[in-house]
Design goal:
Layout (H helix, E strand, L loop, with lengths): L2 H18 L14 E2 L9 E3 L1 H9 L3 H13 L4 E7 L3 E6 L1 H14 L13 E5 L11 H19 L3 E8 L5 H16 L17 H11 L8 H26 L6 E4 L8 H11 L3 E4 L17 E4 L10 E4 L8 H13 L4 E7 L6 H11 L6 E6 L2 E5 L2 E2 L12 H8 L1 H8 L8 E4 H5 L6 H21 L6 H5 L9 H23 L3 H23 L11 H25 L9
Parallel strand pairs: 5-6, 5-11, 6-7, 11-12, 13-15
Antiparallel strand pairs: 1-2, 2-4, 3-4, 8-9, 9-10, 13-14
């Protein structure tokens, strides 16, 4: 049940009837007609802009349309008043029975309440994390992992067919550095002093890798030249790092559907095939780039190179795909990887990248546009930095990692649920402060605790009702006499519940899972406010002694709130609390 969609359908139906009666021109485009909460709740329950957006194409004054529309809407039993405001906005008030019905719908639909067919099965690939397999994931990866997983869950809830994908960057020079670093830990495992030269990875996390290498090879690699062991150790160490990364993701509750390898693109003809496809449509040529202003990028050479004409698809400059020495640039395997995703039949690609990849966005969008003939859009979401605090000071780096705070550090300090929720309390492109002291305190200022506390209160009500012999299963509560919910605070909470299906669609369209966290905090606030009013007004308490029917109606309202909180936390990947300790 999406009440806002239902009332919008009523508005559009009324406008169509007006057109049929000659009160409006036929064939008006209704796409921009909206029904939404008014900015000021004092103005009503819902507002529509119909008269404002149709006035010009209809050739009529907005108030003329609004007044005729208001008369038609007021005839519907769901609408108690329809008032024209200002130049032609229309404010609507709905009957209490409508809001009471939302409570019943939430209980009847259960975990499906708020689910949407918005996506209509659109196939979406969400690629996120994709950390280099050279060590444990750091706090920046943590935020990207949480955002990507929550976005995928949100899109799934809104009717999209979603694939979660991790792109393993195992084809570059960094994996050779990993192999050399692991080899030094292998030497250490064999009783020799490791030589952690500048440029190698110093973290203690490679000590177990060195020991595992010793268990497999003994001391047979010690006297062999690098050329003999590099490839073997590289493959072994990469596999060990990916196992560690999978464990770290599991700690956070993240599971990928697909792992793709950059290395698998080399020597298989996939890079060549993607470049040939671009060549076939006239987008690959041999040329020399003008030197860019400011700092020169790594892949710029003042020589003739093989270039992708990315400016034909919205980029600022054309991009090199092959260097003058014949080797591929870093961009070439990315072209092949995105071509692979396009050929797998996705309707939409979403890449979630660190903020330092901002300069890469236009070229990626250009190549996906070119390779898909403009049919497959690419959305790139940049993840801003996270600043960690503890005891009023920056949280120090992990010795185990050597240079940064790891995902495991954060989860061990705060827990997976807290980590996930707090990482989603800011939009992805805004910087975020993560204060270990604040995220663990029990107060209204801690959003995750506040929302969890609301769900725990609902569970407590259900337990107390059951103990008192009051049936409190969802089927019974859905059939309760919800007309007993008449207080403004109760109707207010029902109105907030009614916003959930609309909020899901707004968040999914904008690819903004942080909206779910904000909404849950507001919903929890309304529940807590009603609970606290019950301390002073016994008639507002969820359990009414000696009155099972009224109790069940009030418990139904609490339980419906719990249904929505549970669904929202499910999208965020947070486990609802049954009780607080």
């Amino acid at each position: 049940m999406n009440l806002f969609a239902e009332i919008r359908a009523l508005v559009v139906e009324s406008l169509a009837d007006m057109a049929a009666r000659g009160e409006l021109p036929a064939g008006l485009d209704m796409a921009n007609v909206a029904v939404e909460p008014p900015r000021d709740a004092a103005h009503g329950d819902m507002a529509t802009n119909a008269a404002m957006v149709l006035a010009k194409p209809a050739g009529l004054a907005p108030r003329v349309i609004a007044e005729t529309l208001a008369a038609r809407l007021a005839a519907d039993p769901r609408i108690t008043t329809a008032e024209v405001a200002g130049p032609g906005f229309l404010n609507l008030r709905l009957a209490p029975a409508v809001w009471q019905g939302v409570v019943g719908a939430a209980l009847a639909e259960g975990r499906d309440f708020g689910r949407s067919a918005l996506g209509q099965g659109t196939r979406v690939n969400v690629e996120f994390v994709s950390a280099n397999p050279t060590g444990p994931m750091h706090v920046g990866h943590t935020r990207g992992a949480v955002f990507g997983d929550a976005l995928a869950a949100l899109l799934d809830f809104a009717g999209f067919d979603v694939t979660r994908e991790y792109y393993i960057n195992d084809g570059g020079a960094q994996v050779d550095v990993l192999a050399r670093s692991a080899y030094e830990r292998y030497r250490e495992a064999n009783g020799l002093d490791p030589e952690i030269a500048e440029g190698l990875y110093p973290g203690d996390y490679l000590i177990p890798v060195g020991e595992a290498l010793k268990a497999k090879y003994g001391d047979t690699l010690l006297d062999r030249p690098e050329a003999d062991w590099l490839a073997e150790v590289r493959e072994f160490a990469t596999a060990e790092m990916m196992a560690m990364i999978r464990e770290d993701l599991a700690l956070l509750g993240v599971r990928m559907d697909v792992y793709s390898s950059e290395k698998a693109l080399y020597g298989t003809g996939k890079i060549e095939g993607a470049i040939d496809t671009l060549r076939g449509i006239g987008l690959i040529y041999e040329g020399t780039l003008e030197p860019p202003k400011g700092k020169l990028p790594e892949d710029w050479e003042e020589r003739e190179q093989t270039l992708f004409r990315s400016t034909a698809h919205g980029d600022d400059v054309d991009r090199p795909v092959k260097k003058s020495d014949g080797s591929w640039t870093y961009f070439a395997p990315d072209i092949a990887y995105h071509y692979d995703k396009v050929t797998r039949g996705y309707d939409l690609l979403i890449d979630i990248l660190g903020a330092d990849h901002g300069g890469y966005v236009k070229r990626l969008k250009a190549v996906v546009s070119a390779l898909s003939g403009g049919k497959v859009p690419l959305e790139v979401k940049l993840i801003q930095l996270v600043k960690l605090w503890k005891n009023g000071a920056p949280f120090k780096m992990s010795k185990r990692a050597g240079t940064f705070v790891t995902l495991r550090d954060v989860v061990e300090q705060a827990g997976a649920d807290v980590t996930r929720f707090v990482m989603l309390t800011r939009k992805n492109d805004a910087a975020l402060d993560f204060d270990f002291d604040k995220v663990l305190e029990q107060s209204k200022d801690n959003p995750v605790w506040y929302v969890q506390y609301a769900h725990a209160r609902v569970s407590s009500v259900i337990r107390k009702a059951t103990a008192a012999g009051i049936a409190a299963d969802d089927a019974t509560l859905a059939a309760a006499d919800l007309a007993k919910l008449g207080h403004e605070a109760e109707i207010g909470l029902a109105k907030k519940i009614a916003e959930w299906p609309r909020l899901v669609e707004i968040a999914a369209r904008g690819q903004e899972p942080h909206r779910i966290a904000f909404y849950l905090y507001e919903l929890a606030s309304d529940l807590h406010a009603l609970w606290n009013r019950g301390n002073d007004d016994a008639s507002l308490r969820f359990l009414q002694e000696g009155d099972a029917a009224t109790s069940q109606a009030k418990i139904a309202l609490a339980r419906a709130t719990g249904v929505v909180i549970s669904a929202g936390l499910g999208i965020l990947g947070v486990t609802p609390a049954e009780e607080m300790r």
